[in-house]
From TrEMBL:
Alphabetized InterPro entries for the sequence: WD40/YVTN_repeat-like_dom_sf, WD40_repeat_dom_sf, WD40_rpt, WDR72-like
Compositionally biased tracts (Basic and acidic residues): 901-914, 955-965
WD-type repeats, residues: 411-452
Name of this chain's protein: WD repeat-containing protein 7
Keywords of this entry: WD repeat
Region (Disordered) residue spans: 901-974
Compositional bias ranges of the Pro residues kind: 924-936
Comp. bias intervals (Gly residues): 939-954
Amino acid sequence: MTAYQMLNVDEVRVFCIGNYPEILVYDPFTLDILFSLAARIQPDWISALHILRPPRRNDEVVLGVTTAGWVKVWTVSERDVRPREPIFEHESKMIHSLNARCLVCCTYNQRTVLVVSQGDWQIYDAGDFSQLCRVCVGPGEHWMGGDFLSADRIIVWTDQGQAYIYKLPTNCIVESRAFHNKQVEGDNPVMYGIVRPKTEEQLINAPAWQFMTIPLESGAEKLLMRGDCEGQIKLWRLADVSDHQLQQIQQAWAAMMPPPIGVLDQLEGEKNPPRISASLFLPLQGRLACGREDGSIILVPATETIMLHLLHGKHHDYHNWAQPMVLRGHQGRVNCLLYPHGRAHGMTWPIWCLGAWTSQSAFVVQAGQVLQLLVPPPSCTPRIQNCILSVSEDHSVALLSIKERKLVLLASKHLYPVSAIKWRPEHDFLMVATQDGSVYVWQMETGHLDRVLQGVTAEEVLGACDEHSTASGGGAGGAGSEVGLANPAVHLFRGLRHRNLAAIRHAAQRGIQQVLGEQNNYQDIHDSSKMRTCPLMIQGLRTNKQDANSHVLFFDIEALIVQLLSDEYTLMSPGTLEAHELIMSSQYQRMNILTHPASPEAAKKIAEFFGKVKDKAGEMEKKMKEKDKHGLLSRMKEGAESVQNMIQNKVEQTGFRPMSLSTCKDGNSSRVQIPRHLDVTAQTLQIGQMLMSLLHSWGLDQSLDHTCEHILGLLKPRVPVSYGLISKSGYMSLFMPTWHPVRPADMPPMTIPPELASELPPEMIQLEHHTQVFTGRGHWEVSPALTTHHLLALVSVANTLQDMNAATLIPEQERRRKNYIQSSKANTGSVGTNSSGEDEFSRQQSVIKQGWSTLTALHTVLLPDCVTAAGAPCYQPPMVEILARRWQDRCQEVREAAQALLKDRAKPHGDGREAAAGASRGRPAPPRPSPLPTAPPMQGGGGSSGGVQGGGGERGMEPHPHLDEDHYDEEMDGETCREIIAQSEGRRKQATAIILLGVIGAYHGQDAAEGFGLGTLAMQTSKALAYLVLAPPGSKLPAHNPLRRAAIDLIGRGFPVWEPYLDVAKVLLALLDFCADTDRLAPSMKYGLPLIPEADTCRTASNALTLIAEARPPAFITTMAREVARFNALQQNAQSLQLNIHNTVLHRAKTEILRVMEYLIVHKRCHIMDLMVEVMDIILHCVDAGHLKSRGLNEVFPSICGFPQVSHCPHTRRIATGAKNGAIAMYELRASKCQVIPAHTAPITAVSFSPDGKYLASYSMGENKLSFWQTSSGMFGLGASQTKCTKTFSTMPVPDIVRLNPQRLPKLVWISNRTVVHMMADGTEHRFNA
């Protein structure tokens, strides 16, 4: 309905249109039909109308457009109106606009007409209705209406609650000479404004819009109103933008020389290439697929294309570098892409075979435009996993089988647009949520609608689907797993009920597979979440409607490190991994054997088996050497490999890349494997090369820059890169290329050679100057958060490459290094190895290691001084809060980088004291402004295709609990959302402050100037760390979260500071409980691949135990000895106490205790000698007594037998140990008891049993006495055994130089059953007879 007051008429008339071919004019007071407007030519329903009064005329002109696209023009005046007689049109013409929603004539000139339909808006000339311009709507939106802001400006609004302001091209402006001419290329409508609410809204129904102009004394005020389904009315005041301002924006963008980088700039032969409408990165292929408006799909190598645009290097000399591939199969614009399928504008989308790049099939099943394509979750049935889901514009959802090439499910009963898709595989349900709040539940196998839910029930069902997907996502079931699927009987019952033969057949097949299938219960210690993640992701950035060519690069540092280390570890054998201390399987296996009962017969059989295998291997090796006496086979193999490598390097240097297709024939069909443009290793190296080149501080150290370019393989950037960050909520902040942190007045002089500058254009010289300044100093003046994430990425990747046997980013050198490693592994043990080649390789590796070490030192310690020396007034230091949260990062290399940076920041000149001061007053450290944005992504001017996100998202600590135990019982239901968020933020800051205090205490705690020497702050920090370690696992503090791991690590690092305030026994038992399964879960601390949380906590606790034992050996040994004594007492009374002794910590952690004791025996001999009895108590508790029945202690645990204070007699099964107080501890292994004999008044130096076990000789260097002891038992072995001294001799005094050297202590050696030799370190001997 449209209200209009006609000329010479006092009342208002109402013009109505609807599902009838006339325009009815009503009297609004009586609702009588006054007259009607009808059509003679092609009568049809009128979809939109507009009424205007031409100047200098006494009648009105009514414009109408039918649903079929016919424009009708009526001229109406009051004198022509006759009751019950229709007025027919005066003109009629066909235009290209179906189902128009709005028709508006420009009130400023009455010459141009705006016609808005659902898919586009068009400008027509009112004289002959010829089309002047046309603009299509973006994906996911529909035009609803529009109006003229001025003669050359329009505003158009959509059903999603947004409005867009356009400037019309020249041929649409009446005052222009080009009016009504053909539209010139490049002169397109310019969208320069977006009208939308400040906060994002989810509208159920399309809103109502109204544009009005209010005349004022100073001019007209233009208002835009929007009313939504929630009863809210929003009002915008539209400001005028002058032509001069628009020209300035366009000129600034056009004046960029060189112009902004486009991802397809390397394409040749295209003057005005079609615009990119969709893009998708294919990680497995290493390609970027770009769909264009002409329906073509361009595939380019992603890493090579990025390097071509962003980095200098030799690749610019190659003609076919980043060669594209074109796929043509669409007739319309490509809206979006889905790997490995593509969809196009309209109702058809084809499937492409990635092996031959040919179109395989096309589906035409839905009536509207395809809006979205989805892939079913991996927990669905095998049949559904071979399908994809298509959401169409006609509100329908189709499930299409790619394998069977047919429709499985067509859900077409939705009344409103689809807003969400949820899956419930265990019940075979597909949940379709619409914008009106309804949820349609469909059966996937049968294709029937099960039920329709609304209101609260619909919300609960959708929430349950989200909870289930989160829970199943952490399980071990992979793709194709039958875990969590519905019972096949359910599908069979539904198929019988709906008489669906296909569903019955598939249910029977699944039932057979489920009965015959077997599940693999093997548990891997590696965290597989990053094992299959690509370290680089590319996403299109839609900044405006005219430019869809912007792309953002997302680097995943953890995935990059994982792939680099995985490639390195695959080249190593288990023995090599053990030699590099990456795994400790042999050590833990040996310890684990000692702690478990042993069968002598089984050990004998195993030894015989391994002996036979060893002999057989020796015989085979001898035969091979005899056949190849002169080494011809090995030399021919080496020569062939070297020639192959030389040819491959030469081919790649000339710019060619061999593409190998391997085929395997199966019957009459031939399957072609997918060709890899780059293998995974080369692609990973290129990604690392790009990342390190873009983040390195070029220009701060000239010698380091030369090393990076010629030795390490880094490339200098060509343009200043736009960096960004991602918040924890998934929002991105991106610095656009027009923003520079360095002002032109602060720019240092250029360093370009004069002869080169004279040959280059001024704009290129200016760009190079900006690039040098930004990469050197401007990069570190942006924000502290950006500095933190970039330093973490630089240091962690550099350390990874340094640990990889000094790897480099130059592909040729890296290939030669790996070939050398493989050839050296193959030639191990052969005669005539090339020693000069080994020396040259070792020299090169040392130079590479030194280069990575220098780069790490620059960005860890020297960066602030170097940036300040380069003229930067405001260097942004890394944030200690982020580094503290990364102290126990999941990735070992990132963890070590964060620890190195935080230790440097925690020095007295750093800002660690600020956090310490805040925590010392009983509250968290003073908060800094959050560096990560909480707003949606920026949408503004055109972006750069080189946007880099260095951090990969902040993986910090989980929500941390309060340190007050009573807080866990508080009820949170009555609190507001703001209070809950504030409490969560407070807990996070409190946990960060604890870690900062722990770091300062661990490395500077014994310095009184830091405040820890006073005792109060150390006591508070130690209690907080101990609470985090000892607190029972719960929902707020899980057993294996990063905060608990950080507390475990910091207690181990700063144990000398925390020891006076800790219950050492509780802490040690808690750590042993965490690492009780170290032999099964955790490798060494040098192992870089991410582990599951249990294994990571186990490894951290094991390392903390080692640090504690190394820092305070007496405390560790005495505490463990007391706990062993308590354990023995419980073991004797376990039956009466009904206690399962095998579940206690000391029993489960025997392997770890034995490992730590062996470490102390090797590295802390002095402390072991002072506490020899306690050490023997701990060792005998861990070592099973069955191992000492047939073997001696020197075979079972040889490290302890290196002390002369220990002696073992296999015949009598006794162990004697000399103590520091002069007593002898006699262990009876048969009776499992210990007898203490007061033997000397000074520490015992040596003890030794006679060969027959009848006598025991003891010697005390401090007393200069040697005694013989004899053990006697009662008659027939009854009664208690007694040990008495039979003889005592005086010995020669020992010089002081010998007393102070534990390695030169005298020893006792028996030469017969009754004669012992007192042997000095200088060779002097004295014999004594028992």
